[in-house]
Write a structure and sequence with these properties.
single chain; 280 residues; alpha+beta; 18-stranded mixed sheet; 5 helices; globular
Length: 280
């Protein structure tokens, strides 16, 4: 099998083109789990499988988390897959990608910068509280697309100085909290200035913090914009892997457009020879 390895602001992915490989869908959970394991294989936050478009897209992207579970969508992955589509001739400078959560539209800004329109929020609950080990935490809940990609948005003042181990334990507890029946990506954030946000995301399916989360940044800025705490225009979100930019279009209390802009990095192209990979 041939692969590309890419990352978007430190969120890293393996890309397989199943239009050429012709593998059954049943093979990909095991492929994702094997190949995404660090040290023992390529290592990545997720696997993206390119398929023939079923409708009006240039191509279809199926996303698998590193634990082999199927994901609805991934914002940083979408930026990387848009670059893949452009550089392999599957699309032009404008990309239309079919995902499980709906169509995603991308734009090539330059060789490495890509802008994608994320799936719009379909569920937004701004004022919630969840209790972990007797302590109550304020939060919001957002789902992007349909079926919705679930995100918990949790304010955490002093995030930069937070105890990482304690934050990890809280993220793991919130990720599977009964308040979020589908499970949730948990996005801790701290407003650090005008339209400046610091964010750290515990990702469902990775079961750890990641260096960046595109849909997480979109969910955080959605909440902050609706609460009047950010303008929704050119909002800079700093994560471990770099800075991502979010733009929000709204009509009243409804978000009608959500855009993510940031860098892509093509790390490697090659042939997979992993001897531990056993295909079903």
């Amino acid at each position: 099998m041939h692969f590309w390895k890419m990352n978007g602001a430190g969120n890293d992915f393996i890309i397989l083109n199943n239009r050429e490989e012709n593998l059954p869908a049943s093979a990909f959970p095991a492929i994702a789990k094997t190949l995404c394991t660090p040290h023992l294989s390529l290592g990545a936050d997720g696997l993206m499988v390119v398929e023939q478009a079923q409708g009006q897209g240039d191509f279809r992207m199926i996303f698998y988390n590193s634990d082999g579970s199927l994901g609805e969508m991934c914002g940083n992955g979408a930026r990387c897959i848009c670059r893949y589509g452009y550089e392999t001739g599957l699309s032009g400078t404008q990309q239309t990608v079919e995902t499980t959560a709906g169509l995603v539209y991308g734009t090539r800004l330059d060789n490495r910068q890509y802008r994608v329109q994320l799936n719009s929020p379909t569920i937004v609950r701004l004022q919630e509280r969840v209790t972990v080990e007797g302590k109550s935490y304020p939060c919001a809940y957002v789902e992007l697309g349909s079926p919705g990609l679930p995100h918990a948005v949790v304010p955490y003042p002093g995030l930069a100085q937070a105890d990482r181990q304690a934050l990890f334990a809280l993220g793991r507890a919130l990720r599977s909290h009964p308040a979020f029946p589908k499970g949730a990506n948990v996005n801790f954030y701290d407003l650090t200035g005008t339209d400046q946000v610091l964010e750290l995301t515990y990702e469902r399916g990775v079961e750890d913090f990641t260096l960046a989360c595109g849909t997480g940044t979109g969910s955080v800025v959605t909440v902050l914009t609706l609460l009047g705490q950010t303008s929704g225009k050119n909002v800079q979100v700093s994560m471990g892997g770099g800075v991502l930019t979010i733009d929000v279009e709204r009509t009243g209390n409804q978000v009608t457009g959500l855009w993510l802009t940031g860098p892509t990095n093509l790390v490697a192209k090659g042939e997979l020879l992993d001897e531990e990979l056993i295909l079903p």
